[in-house]
Amino acid sequence: MLARVSRNFAVQILALVLMIVERVVAVGLLVQAWGPNGYADWAILLSITGLLQLGELGLNVYNGNVWQRNHAAGDHAGSDRMLATALGNALVQGIVLLALALVFLALVDLPSALNLSTEEGASDVFVMLSLFTILMVMRGSISQLYRGHGLYVRGSIVALLGTAALLGSTALAISVDAGPVALAAAYLACQIVFGIGLAVWDLRRSLPHLHWRVARPSWRAFLPIWKDARWLAVEQCAPVAWLQLPVLAMGIAGLGGPALVAFLLIRTLAGFAKQVATMLSIAVGIEIAGGATSSAADTSRLSALGRFLAATSAAAGVGLILFGEAILSIWTGGTVPFDLLVAVWLGCGIVVSAIAQPIAKYLAFTNRARPNALAWIVQLAIGLSAMALAMPTYGIVGAAAALALGEGVGMGLVLPVLARRELRGPLAPYYRACVLGGIGSAGWCGFVGLLLPPASPSLEAMLWILFAAVPVMIVASPSTLRRHAKLRWQQIFQQRQQA
C-alpha cells in the first residue's frame, strides 16, 4: 500500500509543481504585462465562469466510485452501463450549462455589474471561458474511468499534459503581448485538444474492453444516482463556490485593482499548502477506501496522516507570514502590496483545512460525503455572511478574517461532530494529535524565524527551511514512513560496504 500511495502522491506533487508554475510564474507575468487592473478583470471573469463547475453535481466522483467498485468485483457489464449513463448525463450537463451562461450574458451588463476597468472584449472572454469550463465539467465524468480501473497515476499524467499546454499557451500569449481575448481562446483550444481529445483517445487505448455508447438520459435513471450523489454534489460544488464567490463579491463591492490582486495572490500562496494536504489525503484515501471497513486500522492511518498534515500546514502558515512580503514583491515586480493581517487570517485557514482533509476524502471515496457536505454548507453560510458584513468596513482584511471564521466553524467544529457517527469511533485522539502537532510546529517555526540573522530574503528562507520546516516534517512524519526510510538507508549503506 505504501508503494501505491507513494506513486499516487508523487504524480500529485508533479501536478502541484505545474500549478505553482501556472499560479506563480504565469500570474506574476500577467500582472506585470496587463497591470493590476487588467489582471483583476481577468480574475473576476475567471471566477464567474468558474462557477459553472457547480454543474458537476458530484456525478464525476460518484461515477468513479461505481467504476472502482465494479472493477474490484469484475463486473465489466456494470462498468459499461455506468459509462453509457455518464456520457448521457455529460451531454445534458453541457447543454444546460451553456444555456445558463448565454442567458446570464444576455441579462447582465458585465463591465458595470462586475466593476471591470474596461469593457473591451469582456463578452468574448466570458463566452470562451464559459465553454472552457463547460468542457471541463463534461470531461470530469469520463476522466474518473482512470481511478475506477486502478489507473489513477496514468489519468493524472494525462491531465497534467493539459495543464502543461495551458502553461505553454499563457507563455506564448505573454511573449507576443496578447490580451485577454487571445488567452481565453488559447484556453478553449487546449481544453478541446488535450482535455477532451487526448483523454478519450488514451482511455480507448488503455481500456479497450469498454463500450463507448451514449444512453438516453432519463429522470428514471438519474434519480437513483442523485440519491447517492447529492451529498457528493454539495461536497464538490462547495469548494468551487468558496473559491469563486469571494472574488465575485469583492468585484461587485468595488474592491478591484491592486487590493483584489493582493488578496488573490496571498490566497494563492495559502492555497499551495492546502493543495498539498488535499493531494496527500486523496493519495491515501483512494487506497484505504478500496477495503474500507471503518476499522481501527483505517482510523489509525488517518490519524498518522492528520498529525503530519497539521504540523506541516502550520509550518507553511508561519512561512507565509514570515516570507510572504518578499515573495509577493518578487512575484509582481513590486506592483502589488502585501497585507500581513490577510496572511495571518489565511494562514489560520491552512491549518484548519489540512486537519479536515484526511477524514473528508476518506468519507468521500466511500460514498459517505454527508458529514463533509453539511460542514461545507455551514462554512459557506458563515464565511460569506461574515464577509458581506466585514468588507465594507475592513476591506480585504475583513474578507480574509470572515473566510477564516467560516473554515473554523465548518471544518473545525461541525465536521468532527458529524464524522464521528460515520467512522463509528471517537475522534478526540485524532484531533488532539492534530492540534498538538500544529501548535508545536507553529511555535518551533516561529521561534526559528525570530532567531534568523539579518540577510537576504532568499538566504533567510533557506535557513528557515533547513532548521525549522525540515525538522518538523521529519518529526511529524508517520512512523511507517520513518521505518521505511530507515530500512532503505540501511540497505544502501550495506550495499556500499559490500561494494
UniProtKB/TrEMBL annotation:
Cross-referenced InterPro entries: Poly_Biosynth_Transport
Location in the cell: Cell membrane
Annotated protein name in UniProt: Polysaccharide biosynthesis C-terminal domain-containing protein
A GO CC term assigned to this protein in UniProt: plasma membrane
Membrane-spanning segments: 42-62, 83-105, 125-142, 151-175, 181-203, 240-266, 272-292, 304-328, 340-360, 372-390, 396-418, 430-455, 461-481
Membrane-protein topology: Multi-pass membrane protein
Species of the source: Tianweitania sediminis
Domain of life (superkingdom): Bacteria
Keywords: Cell membrane, Membrane, Transmembrane, Transmembrane helix
